[in-house]
């Protein structure tokens, strides 16, 4: 897998959603975008509760914590400062910045830890759990709202509306495709520290376009 293949896949996604937007029309695509915005609002409200439920009732948090803690213990940090140590990790730049900015006594207290290596493992494990919670809520909410969008077919049959509806649908479709790409990039964060994640983010960090897309992913604000 190379950066070129990933970019081609993203381009295919954007073209698909452009064509799909033209086919479905502006009204339905905009409704899909509005339902996505509503889903994100619901995510912001419910994600902490769902994330806490996942942490307390599944082994996901413990597994991720153990994997990352084990990976860090194998690293030779030497006399490097904590900031230098974080910058040496093979993870996206935006996550490095989050780790550095949150490396405070308040965060240590909130995570119930007192050592630097435990902080890295706990922070990343919490982020992974929050991403999983976000994806579950988002998909569930979108599924429910999608059924409501079927009613928009009646409006689309009005002659005057039909033409403009298709044209504007292409633009809205591109936005929907961009949102899907952001969700995919966020999903891959779950594998940070593993072989798949390491390989993927090495590619991302080596390509200016991919690193720009990831580091400016607005969805990261919901899980940091």
Can you walk through the features of this model?
This protein has 224 residues and is mainly α. It has one domain. It is 80% helix and 0% strand. The protein is built from 11 helices and no strands. α2 packs across α7 (116-148) and α3 (60-73) runs antiparallel to α7 (116-148). The longest helix is centred in the middle third of the chain and has 33 residues, at 116-148.
Describe this protein with a few key phrases.
single chain, 224 residues, 80% helix, mainly alpha
In short:
The chain is 80% helix and 0% strand. With 224 residues, it is mainly α. The model has no long low-confidence stretch (mean pLDDT 80).
Could you tell me the number of beta strands?
0
Average residue-wise pLDDT: 80
Low-pLDDT segments, ≥5 res = none
User: Using only CA atoms, what is the Rg?
Assistant: 20 Å
Ordered list of secondary-structure elements with their pairings:
Layout: H1 3-24, H2 26-57, H3 60-73, H4 82-88, H5 93-101, H6 105-111, H7 116-148, H8 152-156, H9 159-188, H10 195-206, H11 208-215
Helix pairs in contact: 1-9, 2-7, 2-9, 3-7, 4-5, 10-11
